[in-house]
UniProtKB/TrEMBL annotation:
Membrane topology: Multi-pass membrane protein
GO cellular component: plasma membrane
The name this protein goes by in its record: Probable membrane transporter protein
Keywords tagged on the record: Cell membrane, Membrane, Transmembrane, Transmembrane helix
Parts of the chain that traverse the membrane: 12-33, 53-73, 85-104, 110-129, 171-199, 205-228, 240-260, 272-289
InterPro entries in UniProt: TM_pro_TauE-like (IPR002781), TSUP/Inactive_protease-like (IPR051598)
Family stated for the protein in its record: Belongs to the 4-toluene sulfonate uptake permease (TSUP) (TC 2.A.102) family.
Subcellular localization(s) per the UniProt record: Cell membrane; Membrane
Domain of life: Bacteria
Principal place of residence: membrane
Key word Nucleotide-binding present: no
Pfam families assigned: TauE
Length: 304
């Protein structure tokens, strides 16, 4: 089923794109990571230009996040106060990211920047996630118990002024910390088309010290609004959002998010994280190799 993408200016197999969306939805429901960190590179591998892939994937993550937020809201797993602060930071970060996107685009380096960011971030996250999963699986096999991590925010967070009480998360910290984290995620979302959850979830756990029960739902809540802002910003500035591509991805992702939430309750979480870590590292390796490929034709002549 060939479908023409007007902004990307190429024809694609619609079923393949729907399948990529379903994969994104599964990851969103299982881990609260939005899934855009895999959607964008997979679209690039498929032949979609990096700028269009990043802009369109952000809009698709919005749909996947809506479904996931409702699933976690029904069980009380969303801290709306914390999410609101992070959304405010995310919107500011989106505006900053738009300036950077235009700057790199004018320099002709935006495609390279997107690829390098993915290699660095995916490689780092994949290694950390894989190490943690292997330790947990080894402990299960040997019968030893992994020491429980104390839920405690980072010392730098404790020193920030103007503390607020975040009752749902069980925290009494400054809103400046989640605001800054939201800004970083907003910049990454604008540049890379990701939901930012694979950065946001660890930051919420290890820097803010949030309760694990509300991390995934709150992450998806922040991702929902930041990706909406990113889509609007891309539409107004870069004009790189391909609505046909985003719609095909959405068809698969909304269903996949519900299935992912169900799978997360049935599958061993340690093995699940190990599979995700392996997948992330494979994508990072493929993108790193792509940066070193020499094209068949170094120069090309395009009509003016």
């Amino acid at each position: 089923m060939d479908v023409y993408l007007p902004i990307a200016n190429l024809s694609v197999n619609g079923l393949v794109i729907v399948g990529l969306g379903a994969l994104t939805g599964l990851l969103s429901g299982m881990f609260g990571v939005g899934g855009g960190f895999l959607t964008t590179p997979l679209l690039i591998f498929y032949g979609v230009p990096p700028t269009v892939a990043a802009a369109s994937a952000a809009s698709q993550v919005t749909g996947a996040s809506v479904s996931g937020v409702f699933a976690h809201y029904r069980r009380g797993g969303v801290d709306f106060q914390m999410g609101g602060v992070m959304v405010a930071g995310g919107v500011i970060g989106t505006a900053m990211g738009a300036v950077l996107f235009r700057l790199f685009e004018e320099l002709g380096q935006i495609d390279t920047v997107i690829n390098v960011l993915y290699v660095v971030l995916l490689g780092s996250i994949g290694i950390l996630m894989g190490r943690e999963s292997i330790q947990a699986i080894t402990a299960e096999k040997t019968g030893t118990q992994v020491p429980a991590r104390k839920r405690r925010h980072h010392p730098l967070v404790a020193n920030l002024p103007m503390r607020w009480r975040f009752y749902r998360s069980g925290l009494y910290i400054s809103p400046l910390a989640p605001l800054f984290i939201g800004m970083v995620v907003g910049i990454l979302t604008m540049l890379m088309g990701i939901g930012g959850g694979f950065v946001l979830v660890p930051a919420m756990l290890y820097i803010l010290g949030m309760s694990a029960g509300v991390v995934v739902g709150t992450s998806l809540f922040q991702i929902l609004f930041v990706t909406m802002a990113t889509t609007m910003m891309h539409s107004l500035t870069t004009k790189a959002v391909d609505i046909v591509l985003a719609a095909l991805l959405l068809i698969g992702s909304v269903t996949g998010a519900q299935l992912g939430a169900q799978f997360a309750q049935k599958i061993n979480p340690s093995r699940l994280r190990l599979v995700l870590a392996a997948l992330v590292l494979l994508v990072a390796l493929r993108m790193a190799l792509g940066l070193g490929y020499r094209p068949d034709e170094i120069y090309s002549v395009a009509p003016l």
